[in-house]
Write a structure and sequence with these properties.
- By secondary structure, the chain is an alpha+beta fold.
- The strands form eight sheets. The chain has a four-stranded mixed β-sheet with strand order 12-13-19-16. Strands 3-11-10 form a three-stranded mixed β-sheet.
């Protein structure tokens, strides 16, 4: 072996340039334990720890070590292959976290294991809930299916720990680094998922495959959960089961989330904590008073009385205080119930009825207009719901029943043009 261009990284670890992988690991372990700032409070300990970690990162990678031996640090920098890992991540690969359970970060602060554990996705379900159940509260049973860690292999996929083998093709990294030289001292680097281990960094010997999960590491499990619908919940309210989403090795499970979707009710409409209902009444009811019954969402019967002489106008809205929806988290406080009255008028009246009403309401009748019979034109008023309003074109050719004009000027259906004199 020819002598490398630089020996700085070898010197930092206290090994010879021909040291093998096992020797490098042993040397790094010793140096990391010596200089780790959680143990060594010397002013330069943190910097020494970083330098040893960088040295091991380069020398433990065959491609980077080859370039370093030939071109030194400058060759690594030109090829974009300088140190890139957090020193604490390298340390954690050996010790599984910092001293005392907390990982060290040389750039300030302590973290658990030096890096955060990946969190899985939440599982979300939308459930339709009747207004009655949102008023009274309810517990519903929901069946869900999720993946759980295989207990037979503890999520390794192998019957024994010895059955999991570090992938030699990628050295347990899950990816392979390809380096291409395109000039003196100039390199390009690319990475690709390792085909042999499919990016896992390990593979399982066929003889050691877990029979229960078939090396999948997880199994499907169905379970029934009790979902508590609280009084006053609304569309968008969530019921959460922390950490009950799919499990997978090395990942913190997400949450199982049930989102409330309020279904439409036949009688009541809801807005916030208030309720609205519509009540059809006759003209006689509107004028003379009436009683009616409301069956509420909890089955209670409410008698509502409108006193004679308390006239209800068409589309008038009245309020019943405290008979709306419970307020979420404050179920003893409620909104209000609003009643909109639709006054239904009779389609026609007999002459006798007209005479009677005229006599009764004579002081409220509109005065007759004063006019000259010779000057007025009588027109008919037809029944119409107003649905045809706006359907008659403002300009255009005359249709059937209309006056036909022969003048081109009067037939024009377009913009009016003014010619300068």
């Amino acid at each position: 072996m020819s002598r490398p261009k630089e020996t700085k990284y070898y010197d930092l670890l206290g090994v010879k340039p021909d040291a093998d992988a096992a020797t490098l690991k042993k040397a790094y372990r010793k140096a990391a334990m010596k200089f780790h700032p959680d143990r060594n409070k010397a002013p330069d300990a943190e910097e020494k720890f970083k330098e040893c970690s960088e040295a091991y990162e380069i020398l433990s990678d065959a491609e980077k070590r080859k370039i370093y031996d030939r071109y030194g640090e400058d060759g690594l920098k030109e090829g974009g292959m300088g140190p890139s890992m957090d020193p604490s991540n390298i340390f954690n690969a050996f010790f599984g976290g910092g001293f005392g359970g907390g990982g060290f970060s040389p750039f300030g602060g302590h973290g658990h294991g030096g890096r955060r554990e990946r969190r899985g996705r939440d599982m979300r379900y939308r459930i339709g809930v009747d207004l009655e159940d949102l008023y009274n509260g309810k517990t519903s049973k929901m069946k869900v299916t999720r993946t759980v860690i295989c207990k037979a292999c503890d999520g390794t996929g192998a019957k024994t720990k010895n059955g999991v083998i570090e992938c030699g093709d990628c050295e347990g990294k899950g990816v392979k680094v390809h380096v291409r030289q395109f000039g003196p001292g100039m390199y390009s680097q690319s990475t690709a998922v390792c085909n042999k281990c499919q990016g896992k960094g390990t593979y399982i010997k066929k003889s050691a495959i877990c029979r229960k999960c078939d090396s999948e590491c997880v199994l499907e499990e169905s379970k029934v959960l009790e979902v508590h619908i609280e009084k006053g919940m609304t569309t968008g309210s969530k019921v959460m089961f922390r950490g009950q989403a799919n499990e997978e090795p090395g990942v913190t499970p997400g949450d199982l989330v049930f989102e409330i979707n309020e279904t439409e009710h036949a009688t009541f409409k809801r807005k916030g904590a208030d309720l609205l209902m519509e009540k059809n009444i006759t003209l006689a009811d509107a004028l003379c008073g009436f009683d009616f019954v409301i069956t509420h969402l909890d089955g209670r019967t409410k008698l509502v009385s409108v006193k004679p002489g308390d006239v209800i106008k068409p589309n008038e809205v009245r309020e019943i205080v405290g008979e709306g929806m419970p307020i979420h988290k404050r179920p003893f406080d409620k909104g209000n119930l609003y009643v909109k009255f639709n006054v239904q008028f009779p389609k026609e009246l007999s002459q006798d009825k007209v005479t009677q009403l005229t006599s009764l309401l004579s002081n409220t009748l509109s005065p007759k207009p004063v006019y000259d019979e010779a000057e007025v034109e009588h027109v008919a008023l037809h029944k119409n719901e107003g649905t045809n309003f706006g359907s008659t074109r403002a300009a255009g050719r005359s249709g059937g029943g209309g006056q036909a004009y022969n003048s081109d000027e009067e037939m024009a259906d377009g913009p009016t043009v003014c010619n300068p004199s």
